[in-house]
Amino acid sequence: MASKKISHIAIVVEDIDDALTFWQEALDLKLEKITDVPEQEAMVAFLPLGDSEIELVQPTTQKSGLARYLQKRGPGLHHICLEVPNIQQSLERLRTHQVQLIDDEPRIAADGKRYAFIHPKSTFGVLIELYELPK
Ligand code: ZN
Fold first, then answer.
1. In this structure, are residues 48 and 31 in contact, taking their beta carbons and an 8 Å threshold?
2. What one-character DSSP code corresponds to residue 9?
3. Nearest 5°: CA angle at 46, between 19 and 41?
4. pLDDT of residue 40
5. Contact 54, 9 (CB under 8 A)
6. Are the CB atoms for 58 and 13 separated by under 8 Å?
7. What single DSSP character describes residue 91?
8. Å from CA of 25 to ligand 1 middle
9. How far is the CA of 5 from the centre of ligand 1 (A)?
10. How far away, in angstroms, is 10 Cα from ligand 1 center?
11. pLDDT in tens, 69-118
12. What confidence score (pLDDT) does residue 88 get?
């Protein structure tokens, strides 16, 4: 049961309004909404693109993993999220391939989606998120 689509690509930014001058105004992508996501300690701008989305993520605290990532590396690609039909099966399969997981068990978001991150050490340098839609 492989992934059939990219759910979203997350880009960490210092200032969403600033980033929107490129993504929305210059590139002409449609801005769907900007939402506070307390569980991620971030504001997120959603820009739908085909079946996927670009997410501009601005940390709202200084101490989250995202904030530290931004402080260390500056703005840029944070992760790519693949939607999967069954996240437990995907994690099981990754374990049999000796892939290093950040989340051994899926985390559950406020909206019911289940997600887990794969360590960049095992993915050739890109943080990968897996995401299973709520049933
Ligand atoms: Zn994500």
1. no
2. E
3. 80
4. 87
5. yes
6. yes
7. H
8. 23
9. 13
10. 6
11. 999 999 999 999 999 999 999 999 999 999 999 999 999 988 889 999 99
12. 96
- Rounded to the nearest whole angstrom, what is the distance from the C-alpha of residue 97 to the centroid of ligand 1? 23
pLDDT for residue 80: 98
3, 26, 131 from 80: Cα distances, Å: 12, 23, 10
* Ligand 1 centre distance from Cα of residue 8 (Å): 6
* Closest residue by Cα to residue 117 from 68, 66, 59, 49: 66
Q: Which two tokens stand for residue 15?
A: 């200032």
pLDDT given at position 44: 97
Q: What pLDDT is stored for residue 47 in this prediction?
A: 98
pLDDT for 109 equals: 85
Strand segments, DSSP code E, in the chain are: 5-12, 33-37, 42-49, 52-59, 76-83, 107-108, 114-118, 128-132
